[in-house]
């Protein structure tokens, strides 16, 4: 399986028009990722065509619900799910090798508290998740689109944050992280101006890395090279 459409028939990766925060560079799944996908997608995969989900029905329980947008190759999400079996996790990723890699992690670790979307996060937010369903949303190291002319492609924008707010319960957390200082400043400006959110730190201050955010191999390499990492933790106030 190499065609992204195989995830759900002929369903496109996104139904939204206009500027996108991602570019599909699918590549090919490894044999191990493909086999894990073929075995486990029917059990752990979620699709746009299912419509608005009931998380209690999906997971068979009513526990803390986390959403990670853009989980990459899935190791950090698997680490979090394994460390917190009493919580439930939904991951969103448009790149199929990453989806296959996460499904392999799920199999290898015997995780039952993870479900996966392989579509645009905007569609997940608008078409699949009920309001006030989430306890935490995580966006770790999104594409910084570092060239100024591409800043409009950055995922963290006022309109996106407000749609996320409605999916969080009051008191729920939005946790952002980036290793690009300019993007960190952009995130802080957006969040500081966003209705219904308050900084978990003093106004304008970044957060220490929470213990429940795993340090990725990419992040470790950056630290070795002297790169900074900035975390922002805001919570919904209304």
UniProtKB/TrEMBL annotation:
Keywords for the protein's UniProt record, in alphabetical order: Methyltransferase, S-adenosyl-L-methionine, Transferase, tRNA processing
Matches recorded under Pfam families: Methyltransf_4 (PF02390)
Function: Catalyzes the formation of N(7)-methylguanine at position 46 (m7G46) in tRNA.
Enzyme Commission designation: 2.1.1.33
Native source species: Marinobacter salarius
InterPro entries noted in UniProt: SAM-dependent_MTases_sf, tRNA_(Gua-N-7)_MeTrfase_Trmb, tRNA_methyltr_TrmB_bact
PANTHER family in the record: 3-DEOXY-D-MANNO-OCTULOSONIC-ACID TRANSFERASE/TRNA GUANINE-N 7 - -METHYLTRANSFERASE, PENTACOTRIPEPTIDE-REPEAT REGION OF PRORP DOMAIN-CONTAINING PROTEIN
Pathway field: tRNA modification; N(7)-methylguanine-tRNA biosynthesis
Catalytic activity: guanosine(46) in tRNA + S-adenosyl-L-methionine = N(7)-methylguanosine(46) in tRNA + S-adenosyl-L-homocysteine
Positions contributing to substrate binding: 147, 179, 216-219
Family: Belongs to the class I-like SAM-binding methyltransferase superfamily. TrmB family.
Protein name: tRNA (guanine-N(7)-)-methyltransferase
Positions that bind S-adenosyl-L-methionine: 68, 93, 120, 143
Listed HAMAP family: tRNA_methyltr_TrmB
Region: Disordered, residue numbers: 1-20
Domain of life of the organism encoding this protein: Bacteria
């Amino acid at each position: 399986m190499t065609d992204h459409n195989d995830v759900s028939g002929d369903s496109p990766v996104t139904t939204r028009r206009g500027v996108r925060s991602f570019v599909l560079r699918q590549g090919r799944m490894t044999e191990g990722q493909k086999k894990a996908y073929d075995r486990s997608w029917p059990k752990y995969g979620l699709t746009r065509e299912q419509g608005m989900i009931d998380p209690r029905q999906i997971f068979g329980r009513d526990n803390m619900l986390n959403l990670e947008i853009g989980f990459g190759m899935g190791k950090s999400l698997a680490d979090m799910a394994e460390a917190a079996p009493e919580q439930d996790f939904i991951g969103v990723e448009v790149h199929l090798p990453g989806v296959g890699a996460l499904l392999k992690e799920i199999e290898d670790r015997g995780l039952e508290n993870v479900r996966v979307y392989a579509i645009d996060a905007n569609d997940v937010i608008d078409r699949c998740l009920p309001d006030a369903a989430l306890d935490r949303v995580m966006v770790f190291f999104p594409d910084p689109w570092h060239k100024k002319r591409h800043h409009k492609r950055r995922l963290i924008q006022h309109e996106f944050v407000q749609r996320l707010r409605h999916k969080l319960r009051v008191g729920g957390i939005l946790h952002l992280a980036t290793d690009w200082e300019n993007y960190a400043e952009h995130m802080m400006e957006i969040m500081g101006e966003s209705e219904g959110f308050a900084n978990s730190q003093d106004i304008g201050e970044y957060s220490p890395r929470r213990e429940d955010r795993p340090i990725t191999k990419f992040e470790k390499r950056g630290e070795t090279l002297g790169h900074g990492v900035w975390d922002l933790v805001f919570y919904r106030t209304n």
